[in-house]
Write a structure and sequence with these properties.
The chain is mainly alpha-helical. It contains 12 helices and 4 strands; from the N terminus they run ααβααβαααααααββα.
């Protein structure tokens, strides 16, 4: 939703950000071979630690913690809800700002599994890997350069991961986030509302934008209280080194065609084109 001023009443289908695609889990899983393989140390005898994995668990970039928990339960043949319950007691390596919430810190990768793998061990390695990646010197330097914390950088990266139509768009999406923060404008990202409503959709209604949630970035300024998913390396790079530009709005009018602008009037035209394309595709 785009408003001429932050206090204007939102109107349906006019928003600064539209992903222009639906993330398909199946497609993400087919990319497993390209994912980073993380060695997994599990609790058990030393000789067990050296055994070759019998299978793997793929955590795609952008998955929410709820999706990770469900995947861990399936991979380890656990009762649904087991991994989520374990996460609250697994002593995960999380920053203080996370306040025990591992969202954003379950690093996307391909994880080896064997019969000794436990949900606690698996989740710990995901969070340990995230802390190592996010704690690297260039990430810390990038966060300082952008006047945000590393945790806030992870939050921005998660929004970039959810909003960008292509990897090449990520730097520009990150710049839109920073430009809006600097201008004290609400981010107005559909992805944050989707997170609050536990869904993924391209359709955000006026009613949605009035949702009473700290993740409603249409009415609440600043970043959401936590990441909205688990970002990958490219989104993280975009968050620390956003592409230079004045953009405040973007919309994906068609596959591979994302329009970035600092003009509200131009954004209105781009959103109208997006809506025409959608009607034509579904008609």
């Amino acid at each position: 939703m785009v408003n001429e001023s932050p206090d204007a009443r939102p109107r349906r289908r006019l928003r600064p950000t539209r992903r222009g695609k639906i993330v398909l889990v199946v497609a993400a899983l087919l990319l497993a071979s390209a994912a980073v393989v993380i060695p997994l140390t599990v609790i058990g005898p030393e000789e067990e630690k050296q055994r070759q994995p019998q299978s793997t668990l793929v955590i795609p970039e952008g998955w929410r913690a709820s999706q990770v928990y469900a995947a861990v339960d399936r991979a380890l043949a656990l009762k649904p809800g087991s991994a989520k319950k374990t996460a609250s007691t697994a002593d995960l390596a999380l920053p203080d700002q996370a306040e025990g919430n591992p969202e954003g810190y379950l690093f996307p990768a391909t994880y080896p599994l064997d019969p000794t793998t436990t949900p606690a061990g698996l989740l710990r390695y995901m969070s340990d890997t995230a802390r190592k990646r996010f704690g690297a010197d260039h990430i810390t330097a990038g966060a300082q350069r952008n006047n945000v914390s590393v945790y806030e950088t992870a939050t921005i990266a998660s929004i970039v991961q959810a909003e960008a139509d292509t990897a090449s768009d990520m730097g520009k999406v990150a710049r839109v986030v920073y430009n809006r923060l600097l201008k004290d404008m609400p981010l107005q990202m559909d992805s944050t509302i989707n997170y609050a409503l536990k869904r993924s959709t391209l359709d955000t209604t006026t009613v949605d934008t009035q949702l009473d949630s700290p993740y409603n970035s249409y009415v609440r300024k600043g970043l959401p209280p936590t990441p909205i998913g688990n970002p990958g390396e490219e989104a993280l790079r975009a968050a620390i080194s956003p592409t230079p530009g004045p953009w405040l709005y973007f919309v994906t009018v068609g596959p591979g065609d994302t329009r970035f602008t600092d003009s509200y009037d131009e954004q209105v035209k781009n959103v109208e084109e997006f809506n025409r394309n959608r009607r034509a595709a579904t008609g």
